[in-house]
Amino acid sequence: MFKIGEFSKISQVSVKTLRYYDQLNLLKPDHIDQFTGYRYFSADQMFQLHRILAFKELGFSLDQIRQMLGEQIPLEQIRGMFRIKKNEIQTNLDREAAKLARITERLCFIEKEGKDLTSQDVILKEVESQLIVSCRQRMPFTQIPSLFKQLDHFIGSAGGASQTQMVIWHGCEECEEDMDIEVARLLTHPIQAQPPYTVQRLPEAPMMATLIHHCSTISRCTASTELAMWIEKNGYRMKEDEPRREVCLPHKKFADPNSYVAELQIAVERA
């Protein structure tokens, strides 16, 4: 038997923590002297304490740990708790990865601030009328890949062939987290439309300001800001009621599956 102070030194866990675990019925002393009130712990309890500390490092709350160490809790329930914790950690990792990507892009933009975009960066060109099949929804932009999968499934069932991907960004004054987004594929020939999918012709654009950029599906891109700066500086303005278009371009696969290369297109006219 070890007094609480001795057990604290051996385990490298403070006396205050051991007393707190006792109050929570998480780690009770093996023996309490009825005359002195001294708490005594056995060497076997070191294993239980190590298990508590290991679960705590994994992110479980003390209440959850108490449940898992209970003798009556089924093994399957413990597995379920670990699966839930695993999903929580994965969600946090994905969220932090998205933040890291946004920070990286913001750093790139900060480095570009104050530097003029050259005429080689932005190209003015005419875009012909294009036949597309599309689906328009209000959603977070991170859902674009999922919506493309649904669109491609529809195209295949309708007997069409998947061509170039395009995202049409509609303005949405009332949107907050969700955005008014239309995902589309170019078509070589018409197919039968079926809600929520539509087949339509995009109007020709006599003058498009275009910029090829590298971006990600999980973070906001600065290409629109860069193109807007060029439009303003060079004496143009955006045409009203003409949404931005973003045409995905063929490229070698990136290590990051969320990365892509696209041509941003904004219809403009002389200011």
Characterize the structure shown.
With 271 residues, the protein is an alpha+beta fold. It folds into three domains: 72 residues, Multidrug-efflux Transporter Regulator, Chain: A, Domain 2, CATH 1.10.1660.10; 41 residues; 149 residues, Multidrug-efflux Transporter 1 Regulator Bmrr, Chain A (Alpha-Beta Barrel), CATH 3.20.80.10. The protein has seven helices and twelve strands. Strands 4, 5, 6, 7, 8, 9, 10, 11 and 12 form a nine-stranded antiparallel β-sheet that branches. Strands 1-3-2 form a three-stranded antiparallel β-sheet, covered by helices on one side. A hairpin with a 6-residue loop joins β2 and β3. It is elongated, with a radius of gyration of 30 Å. It starts with a strand and ends with a strand. The relative contact order is 0.11. The mean pLDDT is 84.
Number of helices: 7
> What is the name of the CATH topology of the largest domain?
Multidrug-efflux Transporter 1 Regulator Bmrr, Chain A
Q: Which CATH-level-2 architecture of the largest domain?
A: Alpha-Beta Barrel
How many distinct beta strands?
12
Rg of Cα set: 30 Å
The run of helices and strands is EHHEEHHHEEHEEEEHEEE
Shape verdict = elongated
Name the CATH homologous superfamily of the largest domain. Regulatory factor, effector binding domain
Roughly what fraction of the amino acids lie in strands? Answer: 25-35%
CATH class of the largest domain: Alpha Beta
When the domains are counted, the total is 3
Oligomeric grouping of the chains: single chain
Task: Report the average pLDDT across residues.
Answer: 84
C-alpha end-to-end distance:
87 Å
Overall SS class = alpha+beta
How would a textbook summarize the main sheet?
9 strands, antiparallel
Query: Portion of residues in helices?
Result: 25-40%
Q: Can you tell me the residue ranges where pLDDT is under 50 for at least 5 consecutive residues?
A: none
Pfam families: MerR_1 (PF13411)
Keywords: DNA-binding
InterPro entries: AraC_E-bd (IPR010499), DNA-bd_dom_put_sf (IPR009061), MerR-type_HTH_dom (IPR000551), MerR_fam (IPR047057), Reg_factor_effector_dom_sf (IPR011256)
GO molecular function, one term: DNA-binding transcription factor activity
